[in-house]
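Subject: sequence -> structure tokens, single chain

Hey, anyone have a minute? Need the predicted structure for the following. Not urgent.
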Amino acid sequence: MNKALLNVSKFIAYSTVLFLLPFWVLAYFNPMAPFNIDSIGLVPMESAQVVGLSNIRGTVGGLRLAIIALIIIGAYYKKRDVLLSVAILVGSVSAGRFISLMIDGWELIGFITAAGEVMITASLLYIRSSISNEK
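Reply:
Had a minute. Here:
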């Protein structure tokens, strides 16, 4: 493997993480902050309706597609690391929903969805642990 290419790839990956951290904090704790919404086009305005909708479709739709793909790959091919990754992903979404319930107020559908995601996370972790027991 080319060491220079690996270093550039790591730099891009870590830079992405550093860039996205403030957006993550704002999305969890203050989703209506101008820095969070206006800068990435989540609120459709007269001049940016298409951009706003494409960001919502891309982010939410892409997240769901990634979860589906990772569950299938991890469970079918018995890949423990993939199952752990998707469990972290679903668990993080669930944590965001619980934070929203605490900050924004109680909503039954939000609680049911978050509780379902906790069950999905637990199921994925159980499947992951059963794969290690088979070896």
